Amino acid sequence: MLCVTVFDTEEEAIAIANRSLYGLSGSIWTRDISRALRVAKAIETGVISINTGHSVHLEAPFGGVKRSGLGRELGLAVLDHYSEIKSVFIGE
Questions:
Q1: What is the C-alpha to C-alpha distance for residues 17 and 13, in angstroms, rounded to an integer?
Q2: Dihedrals φ, ψ of 48, to 5°?
Q3: Confidence of residue 31 (pLDDT cuts 50, 70, 90)
Q4: What are the pLDDT digits (tens) for 72-88?
Q5: 79: number of Cβ within 10 Å
Q6: 31: part of which helix (H) or strand (E)?
Q7: Rounded distance between C-alpha atoms, residue 28 and residue 39, angstroms
Q8: For residue 23, what are the β-bridge partners?
Q9: With 70 as the cut, is the pLDDT of residue 51 above it?
Q10: Contact 18, 43 (CB under 8 A)
Q11: Per the confidence metrics, is the pTM higher than 0.85?
Q12: Which domains does the chain have, with CATH numbers?
């Protein structure tokens, strides 16, 4: 299934995407890579792909924002869930 929403400007497209209560994953399709990177940075989502629908990679963190979840799985970021940071200082 594909949902299509018409927009006139890049800013409007970003605003439409960011109005969603969810932010797990998305895709940007364009020939203009500079624009794609700019829009990818502006869209509130945990994962975004450019010119591909494949956005899950085992070596990279995966997770969403907003109502799409907290935290990340996969990649080195998952270690944060199983670790506690402790600082130890030794004086002279």
A1: 6
A2: -145, 140
A3: very high
A4: 666 666 667 667 776 67
A5: 9
A6: none
A7: 8
A8: 65
A9: yes
A10: yes
A11: no
A12: 10-82 (3.40.309.10)
